[in-house]
Specification:
- The chain is α/β, with parallel strands linked by helices and about 575 residues long.
- A six-stranded parallel beta sheet has the order 5-4-3-6-7-8, sandwiched between helices. Strands 11-10-9-12-13-14 form a six-stranded parallel beta sheet, with helices on both faces.
- Helix 1 runs antiparallel to helix 3 and helix 1 crosses helix 4.
Length: about 575
């Protein structure tokens, strides 16, 4: 607000001074020029009457002469003052209109409104720096789950795009450089409800500066960054950045897991998807044979490393090996779009292909040419621009790597269901039969739609009934929590995936596990189950009912209706 007032007074200083000067001269002239009263006797005009007359004279309304009829000298003076005041008013109004159209003033107005909206947030939110493909996907995922976000981006076109999008929750946005601590503070970095800062710009150095500023200005806040360089990633980790995501290493690890444990990969895909979507089909990348990697940049190197760790034979094709480096097996120089280059790399006897250059047109051409030479290839294609997604769907790739969507998905999981990341870490330590059995259980639970995954926190504000029972000395088990509060003899279609307690984590906790205040439980099932379970957690009568007591019929109305309900169930 101080900036707006400063701009107004700085730009309007000359017009205001001109108005004051013209008004003062006009009033002084009317007060000094001899006048006459109604009887024709000499008189003078008071300053009050002069001010009143000049006030409406300058707007040319013309209420008349007061307090008495003017003399010719007064009328001559007034004639000149009319032109002077009208000219000054035109000058002032023109300056004011120019000020309202000034980009700096409009920016100050927008920033003032943005600060007011951020200060007015009364629910937890996340500060997202960068609204490119990754940021837009993350914000959309957060708002779809009714979480709040605040966006800062330096590109005005992206901010305008955000304002045009139909988000489920209103997203305050500021067009500014997120590297500036002042802009981060304006976006709510110091706000008590700020849950985390997510740096998702396409410049590593910018993300690094955002992470440093966030840790210095608000050390307790969670900081999540995207990094496309191992050097920048190490730098971020050195000062305590909480989570760092490299899309290329993340996808390469995902494909390595798919080669080694396809059921475990399928389980992660189902659990990390949006509830209600159709279940994804499993991937079965070949675990033996020759792979051809086209492009030895950041993505190509990550895929090369993880494929070699699986004991596979890998041949690299690179157009500029003197810049990217040469692997120990050597390199076939070229872009991979030509049949000759692919044949030199042994594409006809290969089992897998990675089209991982920085250009979507080259990647599409590589896939089409390679499939003409070898129809049995398992194809992984890198999609750099999301608007080309329809083309990659039609080219026949088995797996598509989009860096922005991968990072957005991983960060979304971390923010929405933090325990799911812990579950994924522990599940990787289990064998493939364990994952296949769990996949079968999930499939039987949800049929053809992706499961709904949610967290249950045993806290007084979120599980009042359970915490109250524990405080009374009871020891409710997990089996009680999974009973249907409408029919306690039936079990809810839900699978408890993980139990977190005092820093410890247990996969697939048993039904006889006793619950404690502070426990956090990760569950998967159908969406309506989470609402039914919430009833048991919060409602005392529903909790008594699932525990075997008749607490839900303690009121006089229920006692009167109970016999009727028993007879209806008997029928």
């Amino acid at each position: 607000m101080d900036t707006i007032v400063f701009l107004v007074f700085r730009r309007m200083r000359a017009p205001l001074l001109s108005l004051i000067l013209v008004y003062a001269v006009a009033m002084a002239g009317l007060a000094l020029i001899p006048a006459q009263d109604a009887a024709g006797a000499p008189a003078t005009m008071s300053l009050f009457h002069a001010f009143y007359f000049v006030s409406y004279m300058s707007t040319t309304i013309g209420f008349g002469e007061l307090p008495n009829t003017f003399t010719d000298a007064q009328r001559l003076w007034v004639s000149g003052c009319v032109f002077a005041t009208v000219a000054v008013w035109i000058y002032a109004i023109g300056t004011l209109i120019a000020l309202l159209q000034d980009p700096t003033f409009q920016r100050a107005i927008r920033e003032h409104r943005f600060r007011a909206r951020v200060r007015g947030l009364c629910t937890p939110f996340y500060l997202v720096c960068g609204y490119g493909q990754t940021g837009s996907a993350l914000v959309r995922g957060l708002t779809d789950r009714h979480l709040r976000a605040v966006v800062v981006d330096i590109d005005p076109e992206r901010i305008n795009l955000l304002q045009l999008e139909n988000q489920r929750e209103y997203v305050p946005a500021l067009c500014a450089d997120a590297r500036s601590p002042a802009h981060l503070e304006a976006a709510g970095l110091r706000h008590p409800l700020c849950q985390g800062v997510v740096a998702l710009t396409n410049v590593n150095e910018t993300n690094l500066k955002i992470a440093i500023a966030a840790k210095l200005m608000h050390p307790e806040v969670t900081v999540i960054c995207r990094a496309d360089s191992h050097a920048v990633e190490a730098n971020m980790a050195s000062f305590g950045t909480d989570h760092i995501y490299d899309p290329f290493d993340t996808f390469a690890l995902y494909m390595a897991t798919a080669i080694q444990a396809p059921c475990l990969t399928l389980l992660f895909d189902w659990l990390s998807g949006f509830g209600g979507e159709r279940l994804k089909e499993p991937l079965f990348p070949p675990s033996e044979g020759r792979w051809v990697v086209c492009g030895y940049g950041r993505f190509g190197k990550a895929m090369y490393k993880h494929l070699k760790e699986q004991g596979l034979e890998v041949q690299v094709i690179e157009a500029l090996p003197h810049k990217t480096g040469i692997p120990e097996e050597g390199v076939v120089q070229g872009r991979g779009t030509e049949a000759v280059t692919l044949e030199q790399a042994g594409i006809r006897r290969a089992v897998g292909l990675v089209a991982g250059t920085d250009h979507d047109a080259d990647n599409l051409s590589i896939v089409m040419t390679a499939r003409m030479l070898n129809r049995g290839l398992f194809v992984i294609a890198r999609e750099n621009q999301h608007h080309n997604h329809a083309l990659f769907d039609r080219v026949g790739a088995h797996a598509i790597m989009h860096p922005s969507l991968i990072v957005a998905n991983r960060i979304g999981i971390r923010l929405v269901n933090p325990l799911l990341s812990d579950f994924a870490t522990l599940a990787r330590l289990e064998d493939e039969p364990w994952a296949c059995e769990l996949v079968s259980r999930v499939l039987a639970l949800v049929e053809e739609r992706a499961p709904h995954v949610w967290e249950v926190a045993l806290e007084p504000g979120r599980a009042f009934a359970v915490c109250d029972a524990i405080a009374r000395g009871e020891s409710p088990t997990l089996e009680v929590l999974l009973r249907d509060p409408q029919a306690r003899d039936e079990r809810l279609p839900v699978i408890p995936l993980l139990l977190a307690r005092d820093g410890a984590r247990w996969l697939l906790p048993g039904l006889d596990t006793e619950l404690e205040v502070g426990d956090r439980l990760l569950c998967c099932g159908r969406e309506w189950v989470s609402r039914r379970m919430g009833w048991t957690l919060q409602n005392l009568h529903a909790f008594d009912y699932v525990c075997g007591r008749e607490g839900w019929r303690e009121g006089p109305v229920w006692r009167m209706l109970a016999p009727l309900l028993r007879r209806a169930r008997g029928c």
